[in-house]
Amino acid sequence: MSYRKPHIEDQLKILLTQEEIEEKVAELGKIISHDYAGKELIIVGVLRGSVYFLVDLSRKMHIPFTVDFISISHYSEQTDSAGVVRITKDLDLSITGRHILIVEDIVDTGLSLGYLLRNLKTRNPADLKVCTLLNVEARRIVEVPVDYKGFDLPNIFVVGYGLDYNEKYRNLQFIAEYSQP
Ligand code: IMP
Ligand code: MG
Question: Could you point out which of 33, 90, 95, 131 has its C-alpha 20 to 30 Å from the C-alpha of 5?
């Protein structure tokens, strides 16, 4: 089985092509560079899904910045602890007094991001903003601010460009709707 090519092609329906993603990422990089010019910026990638987006976005930025990563896990499968989120890998850097931009692949229920924002706020950054490639307003449980976003999506499950289904499909260059066979 080829890893790049989905095993069962008809489970995936392309929603956003490589070109559409590239164009949007370049646009976001330009806007963010403009907004953070002259500021001490730390870009915080949320592992693991946002890595692909973060790498491409950062290469479209033309201002100095630092990159750090944080990893969180959620137990949405366990009914008794639905929505429980915890940090499994913390930031390496101190964010106190710095301008922080969280980079997410997708904001869905908002539970992860809501937790992350609450947690990072206690460290007193100069300011804390959010950039997400994908936004699914229809599934929102927790209200979260989204300062920069690539695309709005309806209530569907997507894979590709960092997003996975059981750790598969992250390396697709496009974003596709995934449906169970
Ligand atoms: P939340 O529901 O907003 O807390 O989303 C949490 C995380 O679930 C996201 O950062 C993604 O890693 C993952 N996720 C949410 N929706 C999708 C999807 O449609 N495809 C793949 N991963 C998703
Ligand atoms: Mg994520």
Answer: 131
- pLDDT per residue as tens, the chain (181 positions): 444 555 555 589 999 999 999 999 999 999 999 999 999 999 999 999 999 999 999 999 999 999 999 999 876 555 555 567 899 999 999 999 999 999 999 999 999 999 999 999 999 999 999 999 999 999 999 999 999 999 999 999 999 999 999 999 999 999 999 997 7
Does 157 sit in the ligand 1 pocket, CB within 6 Å? yes
- Provide the number of structural domains found in the chain: 1
- Domain span including residue 85: 23-153
Q: Can 108 be counted among the known catalytic residues?
A: yes
- Is 16 a domain residue? no
Q: Which of 127, 58, 66 is nearest to 93 (CA)?
A: 66
Is residue 94 a part of any domain in this protein? Answer: yes
Minimal-distance CA residue to ligand 1 atom 20: 158
Omega prior to 48 cis, within 30 of 0: yes
Considering the domain boundaries, does residue 4 fall inside one? no
Report in angstroms the alpha-carbon separations of 140 from 62, 88, 109, 118, 156. 33, 23, 4, 17, 13
Residue 11 lies in a domain: no
What CATH number is given to the structural domain containing 66? Answer: 3.40.50.2020
